[in-house]
Amino acid sequence: MKVFESVNGLVAWDEQLQNVRIEWNGFSHGEGLQAVLMQGAELLRQKQSGKVLMDIRQGSVIKEEDKAWMADFYVEHVYKSGLRYLAMIEPSSIVAKLSVNRAVSVQGQLPYQQRSFSGLDEAVRWLSEVKPAAELAAG
Asked: Superkingdom, according to UniProt (predicted)?
């Protein structure tokens, strides 16, 4: 079920897998990038699944100011929205992949588990194997 779409990307709820899905459409920065990420965090809060599948195969280089925004604000915000597992499908472009890896390293120790995958199947498999957020909260 698609919840939000812009030229930058889309945010959807995957009923079968019980996770938020974010797909990027090429180069996104500033308010466009932030809008997609914030919509994803809001859907995550509403659905309380704790899981996000982020498909950045079509993604591009991340600007320095966007890396800073993610490290200074977004990581904590999305964690408070319920994120516990983030499966990221890596970009096809080597330059974009290096940029994403640098963005992740700038964020430091993450409060949630994040794994990178080269394909959709392995990302979906990992997310389906981890416990839902409700089970984690129950202990």
From this structure: Bacteria
Distance of CA 63 to the CA centre of its chain: 17
pLDDT of residue 59: 79
60 pLDDT exceeds 80? no
**Which range marks the domain in which residue 107 is found?**
2-138
CA atoms within 13 A on the CB side of 60: 9
Q: How many CB atoms lie within 10 A of CB 31?
A: 11
**What is the separation, in whole angstroms, between the first and last Cα of the chain?**
30
Taking the model in full, what pTM does it have? 0.85
Q: How many H-runs (helices) and E-runs (strands) does the chain carry? A: 6, 6
Q: What is the CATH number of the domain that holds 56?
A: 3.30.750.24
- Is residue 56 within 8 Å of residue 95, measured between CB atoms? no
